[in-house]
Design brief:
Elements (H helix, E strand, L loop, with lengths): L17 H11 L4 E3 H18 L1 H4 L6 E2 L2 E2 L2 H11 L3 E4 L2 E4 L1 H9 L7 H26 L8 H19 L5 H16 L4 H4 L1 H13 L3 E3 L3 E3 L1 H9 L13 H6 L1 H9 L4 E2 L5 H19 L8 E3 H16 L1 E2 L2 H7 L4 E3 L2 E6 L8 E6 L3
Parallel strand pairs: 8-10
Antiparallel strand pairs: 1-5, 2-3, 4-5, 6-7, 9-13, 11-12, 12-13
Amino acid sequence: MIADDIRIIETHIQTRHLRILGALIRGIGRNNEIPYFMLESAMEQWSQNEEKQNPDYQASQGKLTENGRKTLAFKAYVRCAEKLQLIFIIGQTLQLTKFGEIFILLYPSESEREKSFYWYWLMQYDADTLLTLGQILVENPPPIALKDATIRLLYNDALKKRLLIKIQRADTHTTFVIESMLRSQEMNKKKAPFAYKHLVSPRLAWFCELGIVAKTKSYHLTDVGKAIWTQLPRLNETESRDIYESWLNECCLQVYAGSQYPSFQRWENLDLEDKKGLLGQSLRLFYEKAYQSKEGNRRMNGYSALLFSIFHLHSVYDLIADRRDLEMVLAAPLPYQMYLFTYYHSDRHYESYISFTYNQN
């Protein structure tokens, strides 16, 4: 398999809570935009309430407030949400991207199921960092004591090893990016443990929040984390793991949700008529929530509609499906109630679309 991308985003050591990212997106709201200072004030109040009501939050790092007083973390979370393409920063205004809008349609209030969305989104944008950390944890199981500082010391060599394997089967663009990263690594080698605190510490916290890693005296993979690791594609037939665009489309949710929620039903176990009915319902709901107000609009972005449908089915019906599963149902036009949905596929996400007409039958 050709390595098709390097998936790494910049983060700050303070961005340790995925819950805060979700609250930030909900704070912008369906109005789609809000002045920076208003959201900062609202999130400060949210954090103060969390400190009073949630002992785990109160004892954690990366909070927006410390004993009720504002920290400097808000700006770091805003930048992280921007790097994940969930919000835009336009001057002193924050706006949701179309993906941020999908998130808030799916999770208008906090939900356990949004963890599956975080998994999918982080794999899409930050897989190389996360899988480097996963490799360190796999290679150093208990009773080896892996603390934050130890992992930071190991990270530079682990990432270099990963990049040297990955470059062997990389496309032209990815090869260029890897060569640039390797040069940068050599230049920063002496200060690597300090430099990597902004990469390592937040992601260890994310892994813990997703139930993939646990921390007692040191960090280690949970049973869920071990199950996920064994299902990830091997990197060039080594013990390292990597993901690809095709894997994101075909396997991403089933790997995480199937391990985290083993009692949930798999899409492939439904009969075709049930699949059509459930997918038709999700597409209609997405159209009504995201597009119906736009007069005369008879098409939806295909990637967005399927992304919404995957997580709507997961959240409402305890189903595990990936994008490719739904595309197979849409191989032919899909009738649902008064609608007839027709899917036009493109490898470029922004070019795929689903049109609909009123069903005459």
